[in-house]
């Protein structure tokens, strides 16, 4: 998030935000599954709470990214360049799809909508990283300042759809 804020890259900022939400969702799921392992509390109630929290986080991220994308398009903000940000994005493009796949496969086996939502967040993080890399390449090579917020908007729409699906 810091690299995105420093450079003005909405896609990098959105990726950072998604990473924070994804990490938080993973923490919520650890809590949920620990309750079940200790047989403390009601597992169905914990699953509902975890699902709602993850779905709401996806919707909040989508609203934030869409609002920032609209602002960036209106003011024609051009993102800067960040070597550290690019390295984080490249690593995320490699790691997050595998992590998302594992979470989604496990969610299906456990029939956990909350874990499915967390898997979607990981997959969305990979897509955001790829979009941020592509947006940076297009912006720098072709001078298309609008590529970064336009691509981030597409990911935000995906997050909104999945957040809504997770809550339903």
Describe the protein.
- This protein has 168 residues and is mainly α.
- It contains six helices and no strands.
- The protein has helices spanning 2-7, 10-38, 43-75, 83-110, 113-142, 147-167.
- Helix 3 (43-75) packs parallel to helix 5, helix 3 runs antiparallel to helix 6 (147-167) and helix 4 (83-110) packs antiparallel against helix 5.
Radius of gyration over alpha carbons?
17 Å
How many helical elements?
6
End-to-end separation = 29 Å
Low-confidence stretches: none
**Whole-number average pLDDT?**
83
Q: In one word, what is the shape? A: elongated
Look at the helices and sheets and give the structural class: mainly alpha
In which range does the helix fraction lie? over 70%
Total beta strand runs: 0
Strand count, sense and barrel status of the largest sheet are: none
Strand content: under 5%
Report the order of strands and helices.
HHHHHH
Ordered list of secondary-structure elements with their pairings:
Elements: H1 2-7, H2 10-38, H3 43-75, H4 83-110, H5 113-142, H6 147-167
Summarize the structure.
This protein is mostly helical. It has helices at residues 2-7, 10-38, 43-75, 83-110, 113-142, 147-167.
Keywords for this entry:
168 residues; mainly alpha; 88% helix; elongated
